[in-house]
Design a protein that fits this description.
The protein is α/β, with parallel strands linked by helices. It has one domain: Metallo-dependent phosphatases (Purple Acid Phosphatase, chain A, domain 2). The chain has eight helices and twelve strands. The longest helix is centred in the first third of the chain and has 26 residues. It is globular and about 55 Å long.
Length: about 290
């Protein structure tokens, strides 16, 4: 019965999402046509240099590609995912970071659409943290699937990235509200650093910008986030900005830098107006005093 209820609830969500999409697209004219084109054409590459104190020399010009909020689901299917794969292949980053909301649905429904991302290659690995939508879609099963695809899942934990015996910390936390669905997944940026005290540069993957407060307290240098979609289209930019400490782009939060990706896909109606989808390519450089 529980399995049947979950299936019915999923079908309801997919129906409502598609209905919302169709409804909005039929209400507005030329602007919506442009917004539809903007959403469906795929993400642009946004280049962003990040200056960090104490960056080891071996990590100068190290690159991290960020994918966030791809939302593979009712309207984002395999062809769109293949566009993302092709762009990642062209920019050839040292490391790939996926900051949640990768999917909107069950593994059985979306496995084939997501499969192209298993072909992504980065010398220092592909890392994944959960977003809120993973928890609507069976987070534990999706973590098993991303592991099978070759991603390294960071569930309130970290990995040391090492080049020439020099290291930086790459940590990742569960979604900011994950505990509301899976209590054991309560997000904890401080615990994610356990055992890494000697490493000077600490980078956090966290789906929601709201993690920045605890990240700053824990001493992170840089947080990589998504979740907001940059508002995606007017007028939703206003409530989205009000609900999050940062809407999009690079900011400095009391000494901890944070970048908020505007989303590699979209959610709800295939519509983006003034807020293009993106894959962010970070280049790390040592900050010169």
């Amino acid at each position: 019965n529980t399995k049947k209820q979950v299936t019915i609830d999923l079908e309801k969500r997919q129906f409502l999402q598609k209905s919302l999409s169709i409804g909005i697209l039929t209400l507005v004219g030329p602007t919506t046509s442009y917004g539809f084109y903007s959403a469906r054409k795929g993400p642009s590459i946004i280049n962003q240099t990040i200056y960090l104190n104490d960056l080891p020399d071996s990590f100068e010009n190290f690159t991290i590609a960020q994918i966030s909020d791809l939302h593979v689901g009712p309207t984002i299917k395999k062809p769109y995912v293949e566009k993302v794969l092709n762009q990642i292949s062209i920019i050839n980053p040292d490391l790939i970071a996926i900051t949640g909301d990768l999917v909107d649905g069950s593994i059985d429904y979306l496995k084939k659409d997501l499969e192209p991302l298993s072909e992504m290659i980065a010398k220092y690995g592909t890392y994944f943290v959960t977003g809120n939508h993973e928890y609507y879609s069976g987070a534990e099963k999706w973590l098993e699937e991303t592991d099978r695809m070759g991603f390294a899942n960071l569930v309130n934990e970290h990995n040391l990235i090492s080049i020439n015996n020099e290291k930086i910390v790459l940590a990742g936390v569960t979604d900011f509200r994950a505990h509301q669905i899976i209590p054991s997944h309560k997000t904890n940026p401080k615990n994610a650093l356990r055992g890494s005290a000697d490493e000077k540069v600490k980078i956090l993957l966290a789906h929601q910008p709201s993690s920045i407060f605890k990240a700053n307290e824990a001493g992170y240098d840089f947080q990589i986030s998504g979740h907001t979609h940059g508002g995606q289209f007017w007028p939703f930019t206003y409530p989205t900005k009000k609900a999050n400490p940062y809407l999009s782009g690079l900011h400095n939060h009391n000494g901890t830098q944070i970048y908020v990706n505007s989303g590699t896909g979209y959610w709800g109606p295939p519509l983006r107006i003034g807020v293009p989808s993106e894959i962010t390519l970070f280049k790390l450089k040592k900050k010169i005093s």
